[in-house]
Each structure stands twice: as C-alpha cells, then as structure tokens.
C-alpha cells in the first residue's frame, strides 16, 4: 500500500485489533486493507497475508497515464485475483483536478461479472453501458439478468426495458414494463409520459 503498512506492520495491527476485541467484548472487528494494484495487475502485499483479511480493496494509485489496453489488462488482473473483494475508485478521477484513467469499462465490468455473477448491479451497469451505446439487444439481456437477481433493482431498469420493447414494436410489453417502473416509482414522469403518449395514439 502506498506509504502504508507492510506485512510485518499489518500483522502488528491485527494484534491491536485482538486486544480491542478482548477488552470491549461482544463485537468482532473486521480486518481489511487497501492495496496498490501494480503495473502488471499484481498487488503490493503477498497473497498469503491478504488471504487472512476479511476485506481487501485493490486500487490503482500509480502510472495513471497508462494506455487503454494496458490499463484494462491491469484492472482485470486485479479483479481476477482471488484475494480481492472490491476495486477501489476505478476511474481514479478527481473532479476539477485529474482526468479519469483510460480503460475499457465494458471489458472490466464483464470480468467482474464473471467473478461475481450473483451481483445484479454489475449486470445493470453493463446494461446501462450498452443502452447508452444504442446496443439494445445487449442492454436487454443485461437488464433481464439484473432483474432476475433483484426484481426491484430500480425503476429505471424497467423504464429502459420498456423503451427497448417499444423499439421492437412490442407495445404490450413496453406498456407493462413502464407500468412496473411507475409501480416502483410513482414519480417517474418519463414512464408516465410514454404510457400516456402511447394510449393517445392507439
């Protein structure tokens, strides 16, 4: 970790945590750390040490100017590392201070989904990415995976599914999906507008 704990100091910290747990009683303090993702996607602490932690955040802190392909491979390597639980601040952007790193977000999300297929938010994020790019079949499949895992993931998912259904000329499915968006969020004005407009031209 940048200017942080090495393996020896990390183990010393664990002893302090154990002392606090013994003194307070009735609680369990989780042990975690944020580690650097190295140039090749490796981590700056040994896997043997990281496996003993409850939570490992891996983040890119250096060589933020790497080209798109190299940065993408770097992040995917970290995602595939079995000791990593989450990728921290993946874009490394500082609003008003630093531009985001250049990487293929779709490839990174697909790698994350492969590692954690049960997380609906990953499928939703892939759906959003495809929807913005007008890749509607890909967006449809991703959103369907997401709501299968979490049927109340968000009104916007059903709204966009309704839009895709309408583009496919499936007006009945579009109406059902927009109604579901309104069920989850009665203030979803775009879904209501779409329903009213479609009714007016029927």
Structure characteristics:
single chain, 202 residues, mainly alpha, TIM Barrel, three-stranded parallel sheet, 9 helices
What does this structure look like?
- There is one protein chain.
- This protein has 202 residues and is mainly α.
- Helix content is 56%, strand content 6%.
- It has a domain at 7-116: TIM Barrel.
- A three-stranded parallel beta sheet has the order 1-2-3, with helices on one face.
- Helix 2 (47-50) links the parallel strand 1 (32-36) and strand 2 (55-59).
- The mean pLDDT is 93.
Rg of Cα set = 22 Å
CATH superfamily of one domain: Metal-dependent hydrolases
CATH topology value of one domain: TIM Barrel
Architecture of one domain, according to CATH?
Alpha-Beta Barrel
